[in-house]
Specification:
Layout (H helix, E strand, L loop, with lengths): L19 H28 L7 H26 L9 H11 L2 H14 L6 E7 L4 E7 L9 E8 L6 H4 L3 H10 L3 H12 L5 H8 L14 H6 L4 E2 L1 H10 L4 E4 L3 H6 L2 E3 L3 E2 L5 H4 L9 E4 L5 H12 L4 E4 L2 H7 L4 E3 L10
Parallel strand pairs: 4-9, 5-7, 5-8, 8-9
Antiparallel strand pairs: 1-2, 1-3, 6-10
Helix pairs in contact: 1-2, 1-14
This protein binds fe (ii) ion.
């Protein structure tokens, strides 16, 4: 079974003191590499004849599979617990007080674990141990060193790639910025799911999301609310399969003009169109060929344009995770040498 690239869950341009470049580079390069390595190992395991394989072959592949699975999961948890305002929610503060004596005592232990990994690399994880029914601060220098029967509640990546672009060797400043950006609502949700107070955090989040219309889409629209709109979409893997099957697909890059002008590398084979001028360029599209739309990360812009194209009778779908997920999956990119001004349509 192949792992799919998960769209980046936090909005990289809205973090406080962590640059978009840092977060996106981390997601596309390190997380993407982990998913691709895992899938390559799974292919190798799938092709292995276990009746003749040596113990060394099996050990090596199984250890690599475990490490890659852990890296993929920890990265997804890490990106998803970013994007908040760093303010505690009562349910988590109560649990930390119960298990550490005080929130400050927990913070002190968590920060000490992070400091201990400076120059070493690894993960700091707040785990809920099901056997003990309590929280522990734990750290690992390898991806797969985890407590048995534990649920990661909060994850901090202390590998140098997680901070060097913004902070150089100043890991302390990175950890300060991380603490300011923790989404404690996500942490509370994970804790509730781990303790059995809630069956599924994702389902609960989707159920709690307010109902909105396409016109309400904005940079701050919650991902669960977008999902409830039910707009047609495809994963990166589904899009790749559709494009491999037919050259008739139309692929449109609809990143906002100001964004595109700063980042003119794009998906190979796509054309850029201004998302503010759908009325003008949508007439160029063929109604009998599928249209795939992507924006930078798969949030509001791609969804909004897809809805507008659907209203015009086109078979349009947006690509979940956008261009960033395409790059994370190892998709080909090319530089569009044309200036955005030359693209006025
Ligand atoms: Fe990482």
């Amino acid at each position: 079974m192949h792992n799919q690239i998960a769209p980046i869950p936090c909005r990289p341009w809205m973090l406080n003191g962590l640059s978009e470049r840092l977060i996106v580079s981390h997601y596309e390069n390190e997380y993407g590499a982990a998913v691709r390595a895992l899938n390559a190992i799974r292919d190798e395991i799938g092709n292995l004849d276990f009746t003749t394989a040596t113990g060394r072959q099996v050990r090596s592949l199984k250890q690599e599979e475990l490490a890659c699975m852990a890296s993929v999961a920890l990265h997804e948890l890490y990106f998803a617990n970013l994007g908040g305002d760093g303010k505690f929610v009562p349910a988590v503060a109560d649990a930390l007080t119960r298990d550490f004596g005080a929130v400050d005592a927990w913070r002190s232990e968590f920060l000490a674990a992070a400091r201990a990994l400076r120059g070493v690399a690894g993960w700091v994880v707040l785990n809920y141990a099901r056997r003990d029914r309590r929280l522990y601060v734990q750290m690992s220098t390898g991806h797969a060193q985890s407590l048995v029967d534990a649920v990661p509640i909060l994850v901090l990546d202390m590998h140098e790639h997680a901070y060097h672009i913004d902070f150089g060797a100043n890991a302390t400043a990175y950890v300060d910025a991380f603490m300011r950006n923790i989404d404690w609502g996500v942490v509370a949700d994970r804790l509730a799911a781990a303790t059995g107070d809630r069956p599924s955090s994702q389902l609960a989040a989707a159920g709690d999301a307010p109902a909105i219309s396409v016109k309400d889409l904005s940079a701050g629209t919650d991902a669960a609310a977008i999902a409830r709109l039910g707009l047609p979409s495809v994963s990166i893997e589904e899009f790749s399969a559709a494009r491999a099957k037919s050259e008739r697909v139309q692929v449109i890059d609809v990143r906002p003009r100001h964004y595109y002008s700063r980042n003119i590398d794009m998906m190979r084979g796509a054309v850029w169109r201004d998302p503010g001028r759908v009325d003008e360029w949508s007439k160029e599209l063929s109604a009998d060929r599928p249209v795939f739309v992507y924006c930078a990360y798969g949030f509001h812009v791609g969804c909004s344009v897809t809805a507008q194209l659907q209203e015009r009778g086109l078979d349009a779908k947006y690509i979940r995770g956008g261009l960033s997920a395409w790059y994370a999956a190892g998709g080909a990119r090319e530089l569009n040498a044309r200036e955005p001004e030359a693209l006025d349509l």
